[in-house]
Each structure stands twice: as C-alpha cells, then as structure tokens.
Specification:
Length: 297
Amino acid sequence: MKKFFKAGLSVICAMSLFAVPAAAANKTAYPSMTKLLVDGKTVEVGAYNINGYNYYKLRDAAMILKDTEKSFSVGYDKESKKILINTNENYTPAGEEFQALTSSDGVTAIESKALVSCDYQDVSGLSVYNIGGYNYFKLRDVAKMVNVGIGYDEETKIIMISPSSGYVSIQDTKFPLYDVGCFHMADSYCGIYFAANDETRSTIKDVEVIGVTISENNSKMEAFAYRPVSIEDIAKVAENLQVDAVSGIYVDYPFKLGSYIEIRVYAKLTDNAGNAENHCYILTGNVDNYWDMYPNN
C-alpha cells in the first residue's frame, strides 16, 4: 500500500501593486539576479533590477511568449510615435532578442516617456526606463498588459510565467490554506495533490499550477517538468488517499534513496467569486526504501 503525506503549509503571496512613475529621474539599474521560468523551463535573458523590480526589453518579453497562448506582436508607428502591441498576433523576431547585458555593474537608467498602445487602446501608468538606447519595461506591467500569469518567490529569487493562465493581482481577501500532499508513484516521478477541507470546499473553485521547483539534499533549487492529471488518476495510485481533491500533477524527477527533498509548488487559486491569488506551497520529506516521502515537521 502506498504511503503519502499531506501538509497545511504557509502561503507566500509575492505579488506587488503597480505604481505610477514619479517625475522623470535617472536611476541606477543593476543586472538582475533572478531566475526566469516559463512553463517550468528556464529561460536565459538579460534583465535589470531597478529599485527591487525586474525590467526586460519589450521584444525579449514578446520572444519569451512567442508561440504560446499569450503571444503578442510588437510594432512601432512613426506618425504617432507609439509602440504598438497586439495580443491577437504572434511575435515576429527582429534578430536582436536575448542579447547579453553589456556590463555587470550598475548602469544609468533614464525614465522613458514611451507611448504604448495595446490592442488599439492607449496604455498609461507603465514604468519604463531607457538603458543603453533600449526601453526596458517592468515585467509585471507587461504581464498585466497582455494578461499572462506571473509569480515570484522572494526566497529563491525565481520568477514564474504561466502562458496558460491570466494575470493575478493582489486581492484584499486571503484564501484559507489548502491541504497539499505528495507521494511517490514510480522511481522517477511523484504525484502532488491539492485537497479541499470543510472550509475550502465551499470557497475554492480551481487550482492551477504555475511552476514546480525541487531541491535535493539542500542543493540549489531547479525547475522540473510537470503535467496536470485528474485526481482520479492519482487516487488509483494512492490506495488510501481519502481526500476531496480538485486537481493533481505528476512531477518528473529522478529521486534517490535517502535524499532529503524540498518541493515548492507555485499555484493560482481561484474562488467562487472569480478572485485569484498566487500561492507557494513547500513540501519537505525524506525518500526511504519504499520510495515514500515523509514530512520532517
């Protein structure tokens, strides 16, 4: 019989409210040390950090989302001097995407007054800086503009983008904690489920995974592939899984006997009223001879 554990875990809500830029002023931009995951896969792209926020070239952001559900085109109208974004078109590379940063030191960032139109509507309140002749946009502003899911874990310095989900902003209400569990299903992958309790059963409508990272024996956290599955599929493997769960995923990872594993699951929770929040659940445990995992707390 398969063993499993569940854990009611602390929630990390690492979203930031948008702010309208103040009067034009120069800032110092530093190379960003954050890691970017798109659908759980690492994407290497140069970015800057300005006052704690990550800024990317607009064309780099478009390239990141190329051929996904949230793809968008980038153009420029010389007459109106506007940058044109169209979320109904795929991105056409210009050949200058994903260029390496020219310096590892701080550089001058000049506040830009770039005019932007998205789907034929003017967009205001964007935070944009000109660095070395290129406009760098706050990544959260771009995510909100094109309605793509984004999350951030302050502890691991990981940005997660989920092209299959919409943008989530801070809500005044906080969701009740979910029960989250993990159990081994084979030598090379495990199952993670999201279980509703009496309180959440009448509140939570949907759970959508944005990303999964795994650390083994306190090593550096890395992203690993996952795929959604129905809770019925997971229940077939976990013989005693007596939970009212709404969703589950498989995670592909070569588990090793005796390893201490920490799994972070980043998920978007939506309530019955349509409000949504990004959460991070942390699962910890040891792998024993039966490929079962136990919590360490």
